[in-house]
Amino acid sequence: MISGWPDLSVLELLVGVDDHGSLSAAAKVAGIAQPNASRAIKRLEAQVGTPLLQRKTTGSTLTPEGTVLAHWSRRVLDDARQLLDVAAGMREKRAAELTVSASMTVAEHLMPTWLGLFRQADPEVTIHLQVRNSTQVFDDVTAGSCDVGFVESPTVPRGLHSVPVAQDRLVVVVHPSHPWTRRRRPLSVVELAQTPLVVREPGSGTRTTLDVALHEYDRAAPLLELGSAAAIRTSVLGGVGPAVLSSLAVSAQVGSGELRVVEVEDLHLDRTLRAVWRPPRQLEGPAGDLVRLVRRVRV
C-alpha cells in the first residue's frame, strides 16, 4: 500500500508530460524549474515503486506505467478543480447573503433605515433580518446563526466583539390622565422603583437597562410583562399604567400629546446601542460594510 497522498502539483507535471511530450515542456507550462520538476517526479516514483519516465538525452517521456498514472491523475485533477469551484461558489454565496439579528427596539425603529441605505449601496446582497431580544441576539451571534447582531443591552458577553453604533435614551411615559402629569416636581427614583410598571420581558435590553439603573432600590413587582415595545406602548395609551421605554419607540406619541414623559430626578437612562459579532476582531464582508454604514448615520 502506498503511504501518504501524492502532491497535486506532481500529478499536474505527469499530465503535462503526456500532453506536451517531455518533462521540460511540462515544467515550463507548470511554472516549475526543471531540477525541481525532476526531483518531484523521482519522489513520486519512489512513492509508487515504479519508474514513470523514460529518461533520454533528448528528453523524458512517460513509461507505460506513467501513462496509466497520468490518465488517473487527470481525473484527480479534474475533481480537485471541481472542489475548488464549489468552494469558490460557497464563498460567493456567503458573501452575497447577510443575516442580521437585531433587538426589537433596533429592529423596529432603526433597522428599516439602515437596511434601506445598505441596499442602495449594495443591491446584490440578500438580507435576512431576525428580530429578537438582546439576550437572544447574543445567543444567535455566539452560535454563528447570524453574521452580526445589534443590541441595546448595557453589557456584552465575553468572547464577542462590539462597537457603538448609536445612542438612545429610556424615558418614563404615562397616559395624559395619569396623576404624575400633574406633578410640579420630578419623580424621585424611589417612587419610580416602588411603582408597578408595564415592562419588557427579562432578557430584553430595555429591561436590563432599567434593572441595572434601579438595582439598589426596593422594587415593586411588574404590573405587566410584555414582549415588545409596541405592546407596552399600546398598554400605556390604554391607561394600564406607566412604563419605561426607548425614546425612539414613543417619539410620535409624545409629539402628538398621546403620551407624556415624566422626568425622574437623578436617574440617567442613556444607553449605547452596539453591533456585536464573533471573532475575528475585524468584521469583513457585507456585515462589516453594514456596521461601517450605520456608524456614519445619525439617529
UniProtKB/TrEMBL annotation:
Domain of life of the source: Bacteria
Entry keyword set: DNA-binding, Transcription, Transcription regulation
InterPro entries: LysR_HTH_N (IPR000847), LysR_subst-bd (IPR005119), WH-like_DNA-bd_sf (IPR036388), WH_DNA-bd_sf (IPR036390)
Residues in HTH lysR-type domain copies: 6-63
Family: Belongs to the LysR transcriptional regulatory family.
Protein name, entry field: LysR family transcriptional regulator
